[in-house]
Amino acid sequence: MVRIGAFFVGLFFAGWLLISFLFGAYSYVTEPPAKTVEHEFHLAPKHVSFSFDGPFGRYDRQQLQRGFQVFKEVCSACHSLKFVAFRDLEGIGYNEAEVKAIAKQWALKTPDVDPATGEMSTRDPVPSDYFPKPFANNVAAAAANNNAIPPDLSLMTKARHHGSAYIYSLLTGYTDQAGYKNAKGQELLKEFPDAKTPDALHFNPYFANLNLAMAPPLAADDQVAYADGTKATVDQMAQDVAAFLTWTAEPKLENRRTAGLATIVFLLIATGLAYMSYQNIWADKKKAA
Predict the structure, then answer these.
(1) Over the range 188-221, which residues count as b (16 or more CB within 10 Å of their CB) and which as e?
(2) How far apart are CA 167 and CA 246, in angstroms?
(3) Are 211 and 198 in contact (CB under 8 A)?
(4) In contact, 75 and 154? CB cutoff 8 Å
């Protein structure tokens, strides 16, 4: 009796789910959800190729150093890298002396305590320090950025779908809303009159809600003078800083891929040896059978 009762209870819930699904599908077809301005304006990230793409990709150290230069000279005025220490820069090709020089010359000081008085003070960063935050707290950050708090960029490429391409697309995606999408922006604005970008915000179709408080950070070519002589176009700077932020989020990416490849090779060899052992051990038994 218990089994029969459980069967009918399960049958009831299965039927209820089926009916709910059919009614939901019918409602979706007959009354599709209204289009939103984000659906009409928002774009998927652009396609861009990086040296670290694919299972065998490797970081381009020169590109990472260029990306760090862009971050240092452009992005660090507002954004932090709270999970990255200066000494980690050895991973992108800087030697110990260069890392010490970068830390000492950093524009922002590191909070410290005066050992003589116990009062708060500041000092020059050292390689073991993490990158100092550009603002003392969130209140100061919001006050300086139109009430928007610039996010930390340490893990940004991990926090966004298609992270590297997203960063690149966002930095190169600022545009005029009215002329956006093959001059259909005006038509879209007529359909969504409340979607006009507010004053002090900036339209970017690659951002989730389309409007950023951040003005275009890469506004013109040669905004940065690359130490290796590479032409600093907006496109180049965007690719370089996207690559650098991918490294800050995944500094061990190459080691992980190398370990994964070695594991796959080991498993293939072990599988082959196990199969040959099986054949050798059971060869007599099969004949006897």
Answers:
(1) bbeeeeebebeeebbbbbbbeebbbebebbbeee
(2) 9
(3) yes
(4) no
pLDDT 10s digits, 185-222 = 667 777 777 778 888 889 898 998 888 999 999 989 99
Residue 31 in tokens: 């009354």
Give the pLDDT of residue 289.
Answer: 53
Report the top-level CATH class of 37-84+130-251.
mainly alpha
The burial class, CB within 10 Å (0-12 / 13-18 / 19+), for 14 is exposed
Domain chopping of the chain, boundaries: 37-84+130-251, 256-289
Token look-up 């050292």 returns 126
C-alpha 229/C-alpha 216 separation (Å) is 24
CA distance 145 to 74: 15
Long-range interactions of 215-219: CB distance < 8 A, separation 24+ = 216/171, 216/174, 217/74, 217/75, 217/171, 218/70, 218/74, 218/171, 218/172
